[in-house]
Amino acid sequence: MARKRKGRDVSGWLVVDKPAGITSTAVVNKVRWALEAKKAGHAGTLDPEATGVLAVALGEATKTVPYITDALKAYVFTVRLGQATNTDDAEGEVIATSDLRPDDDAIKAALGGFVGDIMQVPPQFSAVKIDGQRAYKKARDGEEMELAARPLWVEELLLVDRPDPDHVILEMTCGKGGYVRAIARDLGEALGCKAHVKSLRRIWSGPFQADDGITLDQVDALARTPELDAHLQPLEVGLSDLPEVRCLTESVAKLRNGNPASVIASNVEYGEEVWASYEGKAIAVGTYRGGEMQPSRVFVG
Q: pLDDT per residue over 191-203, tens digit each?
């Protein structure tokens, strides 16, 4: 018999403004403890030294994580010119240097090559699996790997500031699976000057904004109190990119049992993925089939 998981049946999203110096997993564990939640996960890892939006899903909201992971997200990051590191960020060892410092016009021109559908090779120190083992573990052992390039959609990449000749501040909006460190590394190569990420902040991810996030100190201070619960956003926020259809009263039980049922929809195309609501609450996600919805995942009420 499976062991019953301890904790509360709490569902929703808690947006944390992650500080530097802690892993995303540690943040999730802290939030789960603070809310006494049975189940928790997050929508997109941040490197330990990165800051900003870490959206933590609790309970039934964990079923909506893929929709946030697939959504666009934005980063502001500082690139250090003239130095390449083995980790592509400031935590690594400098492995190459250059005295060249491109001007702003050259940098802006180079940024165009990183917009749209691009192919990107992950950093050596990354969580990509090679022969069943994480790349960063092999890299720590001194092993150099040929990592396969991966597709990435970059919506926008802008130069927003140039505080001094050695540093540029960029803002990028992109899809899932991208490595900001790889953007900095490849930009340095394209400019012939070497580069790495000095600091990184995720300013928004899908519907979640860093400015709306709660700090980890606040999570600690409000742990296991109703005041922390008040910071939760409903799980439906994680479905904001999908069209909403309304569920008929007689359809609720059918959908929750995984069966097709009648829904009310407008401006929804046949075969489109939708979410069904009843009295404002999510019932299921599934495929719209002309007056009916075939559920693919359901939410416990």
A: 999 999 999 999 9
Distances in whole angstroms, Cα of residue 75 to Cα of each of 94, 106, 185, 204, 205? 24, 21, 16, 7, 9
**First-to-final CA distance of the chain:** 25
**Largest interatomic CA distance in the chain:** 71
Task: Report the helix count and the strand count for the chain, using DSSP H and E.
Answer: 8, 18
Contacting residues for 125 by C-beta, under 8 A, at least 6 apart: 86, 87, 88, 92, 135, 136, 139, 140
Q: Is 47 annotated in the active site?
A: yes
Q: What is the pLDDT of residue 7?
A: 82
**What are residue 50's DSSP bridge partners?**
none
Angle between the 104-111 and 180-191 helix axes, to the nearest 10 degrees? 120
The pTM of this model reads 0.91
Give the containing element (helix H, strand E) for 68: helix 65-69
The predicted-structure confidence for 127-166, as pLDDT tens digits, reads as follows 555 555 555 554 555 657 567 888 999 999 999 999 999 9
Catalytic position from the list 17, 47, 89, 186? 47
- Round to whole Å and give the CA distance between 60 and 57: 8
Q: Residue 125 above 70 pLDDT?
A: no
Average pLDDT over residues 20-33: 96
Question: In whole angstroms, what is the distance from residue 238 CA to residue 105 CA?
Answer: 39
3-class DSSP state of 270: coil
Instruction: Give the H or E element holding residue 220.
Output: helix 216-221
The sign of the CA dihedral 44, 29, 12, 210 is negative
Beta-carbon contacts of residue 9 (< 8 Å; ≥ 6 apart): 38, 59
